Amino acid sequence: MAKKSCRRTMDENKIHEKAVKMRKKTDEQLVRYVEDRVEKARSEGFNEGKALAKNTTKEFIVLLQQNKIPGIGAVTINKLLKVAGEHGYL
Fold first, then answer.
1. The model scores a pTM over 0.70
2. Which superkingdom, per the lineage (predicted)?
3. What are the tens digits of pLDDT across the range 37-65?
4. Could you give the number of structural domains in the chain?
């Protein structure tokens, strides 16, 4: 048996109102709504991943500069910085 509306919490009422609005949409409106939400999620995920990659790349190169690793000199680090900048990693 369904819960009576007088016994719903405020959060449950908000969810119920959203569900009713969604059920009243036409097929076309519903498809547009879902596609927009998917595109927004994709965009946010892409931007978040891109920002994370930039931070990680920068941190890696700074780590190379701080730790004197045998075989990786200043010239090699500068080449890495140049290539990373050209390809949009920095």
1. no
2. Bacteria
3. 888 888 888 777 777 766 677 777 778 77
4. 2
